[in-house]
Write a structure and sequence with these properties.
about 260 residues, alpha/beta, 9-stranded mixed beta sheet, two-stranded antiparallel ribbon, 7 helices, 11 strands
Length: about 260
């Protein structure tokens, strides 16, 4: 069995996250870049299954700048067999549509039995890529799973909603996405870190995947305006001199909160 896990390098959520006011893209120099935690959990799902069975190959796939090699190596250090790095300058600023097409092309090329990804990244937080990739591939999709069970021929799991929980399943090959309800990822040990240096990373371009990034009918998103968020204004301070209630009521009325 071959399991393909999608990983993404994102700005550290504990650092400053800013947009480049000229391009509208995330300013990746504003803070340290790290491997997205939800992607690590997705990899843990794949590795947990691989630990239980024989002949299971776990491949990590990332569409990222050339500088993302370090974070991809972390996936290898955790236990992935190999990695695929899609890197192409024409992918700068790719929207969800182009990203889904490129990742689907890479998955199709690998002929994976199962694709595992997080439900949404911490930077874009779109939550649509798993479904879009499955649509490109014509595969069944099980999204937002809070538990996962993988067998030789099928995958199943639990999806939680406001109305309750449901048990869903699909035959392989399939695409699944998981939530943060899944266990934390394992920490790479020294042996894994050393082994990662020898594990292969295949670099692919758009030409390798036969994807045309300049197609006129793609309908890519275009940013038409961008401005920096204004600084937060000072709040209203109410000093109680016997009329604090009236001041508060007036403030709520003026703020259209009452």
């Amino acid at each position: 069995m071959k399991i393909l896990v999608l990983l993404k390098e994102v700005p550290d959520t504990y650092g400053d996250r800013k947009l480049d006011l000229e391009t509208g893209l995330a300013d990746r120099t504003a803070t340290e870049s790290v491997l997205d935690e939800i992607g690590e959990r997705a990899l843990e799902v794949a590795l947990t299954h691989a630990d239980k069975v024989d002949d299971c190959e776990v491949v990590v796939l990332s569409m990222a700048p050339a500088s993302a090699t370090t974070t991809i190596r972390k996936g290898l250090a955790m236990g992935a067999t190999s990695a695929i790095h899609v890197v192409d300058e024409r992918l700068l600023g790719a929207d969800f549509g182009l990203t889904a097409e490129v990742l689907a092309a890479a998955v199709r090329r690998e002929k994976a039995d199962l694709v595992v990804t997080g439900n949404l990244s911490t930077d874009g937080a779109g939550g649509v890529l798993p479904a879009m990739i499955a649509e490109h591939l014509g595969l069944p999709q099980l999204t937002a799973l809070s538990s996962v069970e993988v067998s030789d021929s099928s995958v199943s799991g639990t999806r939680a909603s406001d109305a309750g929980t449901m048990h869903v399943s699909a035959p392989l090959p399939a695409v699944i996405s998981i939530t943060e309800a899944l266990p934390d990822a394992r920490f790479p040990n020294f042996k894994g870190v050393m082994a990662a240096k020898k594990r292969p990373i295949e670099t692919l371009s758009l030409d390798d995947l036969a994807v045309d990034a300049d197609a006129a009918d793609r309908g890519s998103s275009i940013i038409i305006a961008l401005s920096e968020r204004p600084p937060r204004a000072a709040g209203v301070k109410i000093i109680d001199e016997g009329d604090a209630g009236e001041q508060l009521a007036e403030f709520l009325v003026q703020s259209r909160l009452a």
